[in-house]
Amino acid sequence: LIDEKRLLGALDELAGIGAIDGGGCARLALTDEDKAGRDLLVGWMKAAGLDVRIDAIGNVIGVRAGSENLAPVMTGSHIDTVRTGGRYDGNYGVLAGLEVVRALNDAKRTTRRPIAVAFFTNEEGARFQPDMMGSLVYAGGLGLNEAYAATDKDGVAVGDELRRIGYLGAAKPGALKPHAFVELHIEQGPILDEEKVQIGVVESVQGISWTEYTVTGVSNHAGTTPMRLRRDAGYLAASVNVFVRGLAHEMGGNQVGTVGALSLRPNLINVVPNRAVFTVDLRNTDEAKLKEAEARVAAHIAEVAAAERVEVEAKVLARFEPVIFEAGLVDRVERHAGALSLTTQRMPSGAGHDAQMMQRICPTAMIFVPSVAGLSHNVKEHTEAADLLAGAQVLANLMLELASE
Amino acid sequence: LIDEKRLLGALDELAGIGAIDGGGCARLALTDEDKAGRDLLVGWMKAAGLDVRIDAIGNVIGVRAGSENLAPVMTGSHIDTVRTGGRYDGNYGVLAGLEVVRALNDAKRTTRRPIAVAFFTNEEGARFQPDMMGSLVYAGGLGLNEAYAATDKDGVAVGDELRRIGYLGAAKPGALKPHAFVELHIEQGPILDEEKVQIGVVESVQGISWTEYTVTGVSNHAGTTPMRLRRDAGYLAASVNVFVRGLAHEMGGNQVGTVGALSLRPNLINVVPNRAVFTVDLRNTDEAKLKEAEARVAAHIAEVAAAERVEVEAKVLARFEPVIFEAGLVDRVERHAGALSLTTQRMPSGAGHDAQMMQRICPTAMIFVPSVAGLSHNVKEHTEAADLLAGAQVLANLMLELASE
Ligand SMILES: NC(=O)NCCC(=O)O
Ligand SMILES: NC(=O)NCCC(=O)O
Hints:
2 copies of one chain form a homodimer.
Chain A: H1 4-15, E1 19-20, E2 24-25, H2 32-47, E3 51-54, E4 60-64, E5 73-77, H3 91-106, E6 115-119, H4 133-138, H5 144-149, H6 158-164, E7 180-186, H7 191-195, E8 199-205, E9 207-216, E10 220-221, H8 233-251, E11 256-258, E12 262-265, E13 271-272, E14 275-284, H9 287-308, E15 311-320, E16 323-324, H10 327-339, E17 344-349, H11 354-358, E18 364-369, H12 385-403
Parallel strand pairs in A: 5-6, 5-7, 7-18, 8-17
Antiparallel strand pairs in A: 1-2, 3-4, 4-6, 8-16, 8-18, 9-14, 9-15, 10-13, 11-14, 12-14
The complex binds N-(aminocarbonyl)-beta-alanine (2 copies).
One N-(aminocarbonyl)-beta-alanine sits between chains B (89, 123-125, 131, 188, 351-353) and A (221-223, 270).
């Protein structure tokens, strides 16, 4: 069914919007580049005969009518990227969904249930927090006004940006309740690539804990201030980074921890920093373990803050418990991959995905394809064409089955 | 001799240029604010009858003729500040020198030797490295072309900025070789304030080692990348900060170490940083110990870089060995303070100063006054008026003695 060339061509064309050195993309949510990407997708959806609905958080859903007016089978993902992102993360799932529609059109096939292809607003969370914002609102987990009020680091709000780029739509988020939701995505991690497996059967998504810390110390002269008198905001930030690394190693399993963002003030070579703002990203498939990691980071911060005599303010930017996908639907992913003679492996997802929010309102599952060398959120993110094709074929067959029931 | 009100008034007026919240100053070297401060000082010098000479690195020297055409007795410091600096650092020494001249004018006193008041370009090193740039060029330790080529973080060069603000003068740096140089400065550290001593008799300046490190790792997804596969540039930077703290504690004595500046790329919550640029400032009064500290930091970086599989480039931004001031002149500082019934303490300087460069070409000494709570490079930097007056009196008496011989 799937036209490999057309799928790759669409990926190429979308990757041209916000293209950056090294083959990657910078299409942060609700920027001009995101708008250009959205416009391209909406054009394609309309050209494919889809009924396009834009909701009040900017989610875009294109619906292909079924022979009966039933709940649709939905697929989709996101087209926003991080600042130095790849071309597959999110985009692949959306364009594979579009390819399924285009292929059905070519084959002049009508399904019993409608088929819907969606892309959700601000999945990455790189510009606005929380991540998975559009799907979270869609699933009823976040109110519109709260979402509108989220601001980027320059104080620009989601609501204003949605209006500015023309994607504050009229539809009520969640109005269309799917029969099932299936998201196809690159793994973004190394497991399938290392094990040479073609399809990842995603059983769950690990819990995500994002906190931003603002540390206030006292700026002072780097040459004259004895170590015992320092109240160094940057030192606390550094000690947390090192602590998080040690904690992840000690806890083992799939516990990961990252300090990805940090800025110092005044940020000068000979001045003890009086302010540090930094983030901690903690994840675990096990909620109890994730809570343990959070508690231990908090205890470390309290201890160092007291010794260093600095003030620390913590702000939770996102907190999602681990999510288990619908067991029956997960089995079907495995079955369809097997029917195509593809090798499979059951696995949790390390990244957050829109699917984890959709699981709140309908049976949901995910299909992973390998990421070369496990690279993602990197301009060199890559998946082989054969794997892109295989994933889209599994998606198509599963959607057709779901749409016939 | 000294007019306290006039001295405090001049400090107030200069502090009005580049004033920032909290009572501090932002007059980074060769900015518009620095130009405005320079213009104010040059006006005051001319009004006080000084012969003002601007040299090719932007040092400004005002000379008051003596009864004989001998080498002058010189005092001075700098008027540039860090980004969130105080109002006394540097400025106090320059304005106290001007006050000595004004007081001699009022008293219609002529000295045997000429008296010179100088302010040197870019002492702070906050915008351009190395620090003490103007006095270093003056003393022959750095060539003009090398100094002109130094750039700030936006790539703007010293030579271009000197021309732009009109302070690329005609005089040859170092043309005027002083009989002696005495710099009056706030301590910028806690010792005099803690010990309730009025005058610090500065015997030496500790060695300064500034290095900027650029770390290249691999950006990757914070949720999907197992700890063992990370090549996290930010982690290396953090580990150096923590290591430097531990090293300073372990080495003890007056070893200090600071990571004051750090920036990450892409600097996003859910992306492992692929680039970190950070600085390390190490200081010790003992050159052998400073070398040991440098070697141990380098060894730590090599070890972590290998384990993390990141590349590290090191760039030395400044490196000055400890400096011992002229013993005879140091004794005289102590004697003059004693004659005014001021309490004294001999001490090294923790900060770098223009005087340490002048010691290369003439007998040099420094006078310190207390900094309340040891705060400096901080908008709350403060010295009590009585201490400001006392320091200026010691300076005046010492200069008069030197100018009469
Ligand atoms: N898939 C993906 O990269 N989502 C962004 C949110 C996260 O950091 O997991
Ligand atoms: N006095 C002073 O703050 N100098 C700046 C250079 C240094 O960091 O020591």
